[in-house]
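DM between two lab members

TW: hey, do you still have the SGNH hydrolase-type esterase domain-containing protein entry open?
JB: yeah, one sec
JB: this one, 201 aa:
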Amino acid sequence: MNICVFGDSITWGAFLPFRGAWANLLRNYLETINPFIALYDLGVDKDTSEEVLKRFEPEAESRKPDLIIFAVGINDSAYRKTKDNPVVPLSQFENNINKLIETAKKMTESIFFVGLVKGDDSKTLPLPRSTTGKCYGKDNVRKYNTILQKVCTKHRITYLDIFQLLTDEDFDDGLHPNLGGHQKIFEAVRRSLLKSGLLTS
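TW: and the structure you got?
JB:
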């Protein structure tokens, strides 16, 4: 069984020790129950749904996935100066997610979406490391999370809402979950995949 996980820096675990991110924790778990499962962590730093859409088809097709997991949207919601000017507008984000699902369905019916984490506004308005004043705010993230849920419901895709899962203590920089945060995400993803039947223990 081949599993492809597409996402951003939260997927691959920015600022964490090697294999500390939720996708890698899922890989570690799967390796203990079935040596024939291969999980490919295809998270790329700073990726929005635009970038994921551009690279999705060739990267997925080459790995012949049986299950595709998406975790994307945080970077789409980011903005500079005003919330009304996000990196990827809501309407375009919705269109991109629809296209990702439609393309993924050509490869497999087993598709799973991980919702967005809310972060800690006290550290992300703006993000301290940003040289351009990039902001990540809960209010905007919530809007993109709602779109994800709406589109997944329309396509009858399993969607895991983790917006309220993490607390401020689960973030070191306000945006990227720390080891404790990733452990919570992994546990939630594992439970949801098993409950939905997309994985068997």
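TW: got it. The mean pLDDT is 95. The radius of gyration is 16 Å.
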